[in-house]
Amino acid sequence: MSNSKLATVKVPALSSNYTKGRDYKISKITVHHMAGKLTAKQCGKVFQAKGRCTSAHYGVGSDGKIGLYVDEKNAAWTDGNRTSNHKSVTIEVANSSTGGQWPVSNTSIKLLIKLVADIAKRNNLGKLVAGKNLTWHSMYASTACPGPYLRSQMKYIAQEANKINGYTTTGKNYSATFPKLPERGYFKKGDKGTQVKNLQKFLNWYGGYGLAVDGDLGDKTLSAVKKFQKAEGLTVDGLFGSKSLAKAKTVKK
Predict the structure, then answer these.
(1) What is the per-residue pLDDT across 14-55, written as a single tens digit (0 to 9) for each?
(2) Would you state the pLDDT for residue 230?
(3) Whole-angstrom distance, CA of residue 228 vs CA of residue 210
(4) Does a cis peptide bond (omega within 30 degrees of 0) precede residue 146?
(5) Axis crossing angle, helix 219-231 with helix 242-250, rounded to the nearest 10
(6) Taking each helix axis from N to C terminus, what angle separates 106-122 and 154-164, rounded to the nearest 10 degrees?
(7) Distance, CA of 134 to CA of 49 (rounded, Å)
């Protein structure tokens, strides 16, 4: 599992402040605030303290830099909830001033959006929705974190990150060059071959489903076909037939 290349400051958290490995697949991003004006390095040093019993994967510092503290393959102790920790990639964001609304600078918001988009894309989180796969600390623990200001920005952050990843307002992903469509219009579970690969490439282009392009129409590809059919108002039967193929041709960018 990779980490974000946007992180230019690396301050590894003490191994006793996070869990090695994960019990669940990454399914969301959780945003926090630092409750202070800390640089990326300063935030990381907090997680190097013995007995701190807390950590985060990333930090957006007041110095305009992104820090990496815990590898994404491991569970950081950030959300105050074990299950959430194992499902989340967590981000601490520096405040531009303390108290009140706990504001965050525009520079930090822009960096946060880029980082959120990168994490979502690499982990195949699909279209981000505030409160679902883009979450915040107070959803899992009794806390005011991430503060009123960041909390008010969550829908905007999801919207802008989705734009970076190519999602339209309808949730379709047009981030890549339109792929070659299958030459025929009938696929069912168990089919294999080059035409299935073309189908998988199309589905990844359309919905960002993260399918392995292996030419094997298994459960994941079948599920993606059904999602496509539902989104386009077709009969949801999992059979990519002539009607599905015809509809696929109409959504070309």
Answers:
(1) 999 999 999 999 999 999 999 999 999 999 999 999 999 999
(2) 85
(3) 14
(4) yes
(5) 60
(6) 60
(7) 28
